């Protein structure tokens, strides 16, 4: 019984996370405008999700404890691309995506880097 309830909670969390940004993405696509989206806040959210995901992977937490983060990161990347697409230059997104991808590897180079990033993320929240 407990295992079934826990499984239901895990999968419902994944379902909610999968649908979390869909209304915002569909509104941006329908309006064909990125007006109202803040690039700095989106980048901060992406960085936070990336640090949390990398931290949990680095320390070997079970995958069910962090499966929602890749979903949220993918949705934020779609929003990031929408911002640049509707502002007229998708190529400007390249450095941001390059930094996000490279930070995935940099965070795990040394234990103190991931710990410092996690501590800084908590202070930002």
Structural account:
- Keywords: Membrane, Transmembrane, Transmembrane helix.
- This is Solute carrier family 66 member 3.
- It is a multi-pass membrane protein.
- It comes from Rhinopithecus bieti.
- The protein has 125 residues and is mainly alpha-helical.
- It has one domain.
- Helix content is 77%, strand content 0%.
- It has six helices and no strands.
- Helix 3 runs antiparallel to helix 4 (68-86) and helix 3 (39-58) packs across helix 6.
- The mean pLDDT is 87.
Describe how the helices and strands are arranged.
Blueprint (H helix, E strand, L loop, with lengths): L1 H19 L1 H10 L7 H20 L9 H19 L6 H14 L4 H14 L1
Helix pairs in contact: 1-4, 2-4, 3-4, 3-5, 3-6
Features:
125 residues
In brief:
With 125 residues, the protein is mostly helical.
Number of strands: 0
Q: If helices are DSSP runs of H or I spanning 4 or more residues, what is the number of helices?
A: 6
Number of domains: 1
Main sheet makeup: none
Described by the principal axes of the CA atoms, the overall outline is: flat
Helix-strand string: HHHHHH
Taking all Cα atoms into account, the compactness measure Rg is 16 Å
Helix percentage range: over 70%
Q: Uncertain segments of ≥5 residues (pLDDT<50)?
A: none
Mean pLDDT: 87
Distance between the termini: 36 Å
Strand content: under 5%
* Structural class category: mainly alpha
